[in-house]
Every structure is written in C-alpha cells, then in structure tokens.
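This follows on from our talk about sequence and fold. Please put the record directly below this note.
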Amino acid sequence: MTGMVYLVGAGPGDPELLTLKGQRLLESADVVVFDRLVSPALLDLIGPGALRISAGKTVGGPSVSQAETTALLVRLARAGRTVVRLKGGDPFVFGRGGEEALALRAARVPFELVPGVSAGIAGPAYAGIPVTHRGTARTVAFATGHEDSGAGGPAVDWEALARIDTLVVFMAGRTGGAVARRLLAAGRSADLPVAVVVDASLPHQEVRTMRLAELADGGPGELDGRPAVLVIGEVVALADILTWFEPSAIEAAAVTGR
C-alpha cells in the first residue's frame, strides 16, 4: 500500500511560526525529510521512532540534488511510509515544492500541501516593514535573485518589476547589487529605500538599510551564506517607526533564562 507525503512549510526560522497542522504531522510521521534552514527546534517535535533524513543544499558545500530528493520521497511513500517533507518558508514560494509535487503526481504518490509562513512576508514584517500600505504601496511582487538565464535572456522581467510599489527579492545575498542595477536601469529612483533582512525572525536577525544606489554600488554586504531577503520600496522607510522585534533582548533572555 502506498504511503502519503506531506509537503510542509516550516516558516522562515522562528520555530513558533510553524502551523499547528505542521506540528501534528511532525509528531505522527514515519519519516521526516528536512532542509538545511529548518530550525533544529522543529526536529525536536518529531516522534521518537521516526526516521530523520537531511536533504539540505549548501552553497559551495555538500548538497543533496533535487532529483535525489524527489526520488527519495517516491521510494519512501511506495514503501508505505507517512512522510513529512519539511521545507523552509512556504513550499510553493521559491521552495521547489511544485517540482516535488509534480514528481509525486507523476509517480502516482498521494500528497498534501501544508502552507508555511513565507520569508517574503515574515522577513519584512520582523523588520517592521509592511509590504503593502495604504497610500504608499498598493502592489507587491516577489522575485528570485537567482536568475536562470536561457537563450532568451534573463528569466526575470526587471523592467516590469520596476513598476511595482514593493519588491521582495529572495536569495539575493550574492546578486543584490546586480538586482539594484537592473532596477535603476529600468527607471527606479536612486534614492528608493532598501532593506536587507538577514536571518529573519531569528534571535540574531539583522536589518541593513540603504538606498537603491548604495545597493547597486556595494551590494548587500558579506552575508557568509546566511539567508536574506531584499525589500525595495517606499514602505522600507516605515521600519524606523514600526520596528518591534528586538533580537538583542531575545538573545539576552535566552542566556539569562528570563
């Protein structure tokens, strides 16, 4: 009898952002296949008899290919296992969950999608930045900083995105400067506010603010492989007023036990 695969979003980092359904599935799964950026605290929720398998991808380091991961999910389900595929953020928002779902459907393996809190929303929110705001930003778009250039040129239409009020760019740690230069070339203002949110929602979260021209000149800075999202738009200016998350206080409380 074929088992079941649950594609579960783990959220951006803070383990408390996992959904209740995600928690229940972790507690009852036979196997959990998890990504590198998943909080270790979530692995503590896995039942004592469950098998844990890392399917992480590390820039410049050891990685499990996507083909290997999808083949593993199919194999486990065909062995009758209940499998949780635990993915950072939301599986269907730059999480390659769609690819895994297509592979499962092609193999006639039943699956279910359990959405998670996307870093594209949580990153700005934890920095005090509303991605939409009445009178300032009525449109928001999400893009990837990793362009897959084909014969027809860049896969991302930066000219079209330059007309969006708020732009949130995933995986832009190494390409933020190039993204900024494309947006400037498409007509965005050099003074447009930008925020780089690093390790969003975690106690060591860091927010770097600058202007679009500064990002174009120097990029987001050295991130050492830490996950980051870029937020580009006038709403970034609200961060000074709406900031609420104090990572230093959280870190101090963790040390003192208060």
About this structure: Confidence is low (pLDDT under 50) at residues 252-258. The chain has ten helices and ten strands.
